[in-house]
C-alpha cells in the first residue's frame, strides 16, 4: 500500500467507512450527516437528525447489507430521560430516520455508546462497552439486515482492554496489554453462537523496528487483504503510525505528516460501488 493525498475536500469529518463508502458528520452541526464515495466523488446529504441537542459524537456507523448491497446508517443518542436509542436509515431509500429503543438490551445497567462502532459484513458492533449477564461479559451488535439486536460474548479468558477491528468478513479481537507489543488475534467465527477462534499471535518481533522509547501500541485496522496491520504507536517524541506485514514479519513507519497534527485515522478501501441501486 502507499499513502496518497487525495487533495479533495469532503463534507465534515469521516466517522466511519464500509466497502468504499464513508460516513461524514459536520463538526459544526452534529445533526448533519453525509455519505460519500471518495473514488467516484458521489456525495449525498442524509435527512436531518431530529434528536435532543446532546449528541454522541462517535456513535454513528455505516454498513452494507450482503443480501441487497444497500447501505444503512445507524446513530446512537441519549434522550432527555437518559435512555439510549438507535436511529436507522437506508441510504438512497428512506426520507427519515427510524427509532429503535435499545435500553432493554442492557436492563438497568449503565451503558455507554459514545464510541466508534465497528462495521463488518452487515453487522455493527458496539465493542467499547461490555456488560455482565449470568457471569458472562457481552457487548451489543445489530444485524442491519433485519435490525435485530445480538449479545456477543467477549472471547473466553480475554482480559480487558481489548481492541476490535474488521478483518475481512469477520470481527477480529486483539487481546493485549497496551504497554506491550504482543497480540493474540481472534476472529468471531459464528455471531449467533458467539464462537471465537485464534488465528494469529504477534510477538516481540514488532519491537525491533520501532523506537526504543515506545510505550503504547494500538491496532487501527487491516490493509492489503488483511496481511498488513496498521498501528498507532506513542513515543516520548510523539505519535507514530506503523505498518506490520504479517507474512514478512516486518515493520515500517508510515508517514502521515500530510494529515497535520490533529486527525482521527480511519481505514478506508476504495471501491466504485454506489448506494443508488
Describe this structure in words.
It is a single chain. With 277 residues, the chain is an all-beta fold. It folds into 2 domains: 1-153, no CATH class; 157-265. 0% of the residues lie in helices and 50% in strands. The chain has no helices and 20 strands. It has strands at 13-18, 21-26, 29-37, 42-45, 55-64, 71-78, 84-90, 98-101, 118-120, 123-133, 136-143, 148-153, 162-167, 170-175, 183-190, 195-202, 216-223, 228-235, 238-245, 250-253. The strands form 5 sheets. The protein has a 4-stranded antiparallel sheet, with no helix packed on it. It has a 4-stranded antiparallel sheet with strand order 5-6-7-8, with no helix packed on it. A hairpin with a 2-residue loop joins strand 1 (13-18) and strand 2. The mean pLDDT is 78. InterPro entries: F-box-assoc_dom_typ3, F-box-assoc_interact_dom, SCF_F-box_component. This is F-box associated beta-propeller type 3 domain-containing protein. It comes from Davidia involucrata (Dove tree).
Amino acid at each position: 500500500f502507499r499513502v496518497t493525498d487525495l487533495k479533495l475536500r469532503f463534507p465534515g469529518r469521516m466517522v466511519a467507512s464500509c466497502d468504499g463508502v464513508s460516513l461524514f458528520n459536520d463538526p459544526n452541526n452534529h445533526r448533519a450527516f453525509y455519505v460519500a464515495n471518495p473514488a467516484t466523488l458521489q456525495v449525498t446529504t442524509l435527512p436531518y437528525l431530529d434528536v435532543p441537542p446532546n449528541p454522541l459524537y462517535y456513535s454513528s456507523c455505516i454498513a452494507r447489507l450482503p443480501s441487497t448491497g444497500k447501505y444503512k446508517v445507524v446513530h446512537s443518542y441519549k434522550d432527555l430521560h437518559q435512555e439510549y436509542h438507535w436511529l436507522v436509515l437506508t441510504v438512497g431509500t428512506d426520507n427519515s430516520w427510524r427509532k429503535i429503543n435499545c435500553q432493554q438490551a442492557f436492563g438497568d445497567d449503565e451503558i455507554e455508546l459514545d464510541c466508534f462502532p465497528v462495521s463488518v459484513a452487515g453487522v455493527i458492533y458496539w465493542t467499547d462497552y461490555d456488560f455482565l449477564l449470568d457471569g458472562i461479559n457481552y457487548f451489543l451488535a445489530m444485524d442491519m439486515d433485519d435490525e435485530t439486536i445480538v449479545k456477543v460474548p467477549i472471547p473466553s479468558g480475554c482480559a480487558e482492554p481489548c481492541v476490535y477491528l474488521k478483518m475481512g468478513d469477520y470481527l477480529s479481537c486483539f487481546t493485549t496489554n497496551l504497554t506491550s507489543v504482543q497480540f493474540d488475534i481472534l476472529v468471531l467465527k459464528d455471531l449467533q453462537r458467539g464462537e471465537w477462534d485464534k488465528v494469529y499471535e504477534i510477538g516481540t518481533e514488532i519491537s525491533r523496528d520501532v523506537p526504543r522509547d515506545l510505550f503504547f501500541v494500538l491496532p487501527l485496522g487491516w490493509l492489503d487483504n488483511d496481511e498488513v496491520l496498521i498501528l498507532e504507536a506513542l513515543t516520548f517524541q510523539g505519535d507514530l503510525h506503523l505498518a506490520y506485514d504479517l507474512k514478512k514479519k516486518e515493520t515500517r513507519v508510515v508517514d502521515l505528516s500530510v494529515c497535520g497534527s490533529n486527525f482521527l485515522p480511519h481505514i478506508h478501501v476504495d471501491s466504485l460501488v454506489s448506494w443508488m441501486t
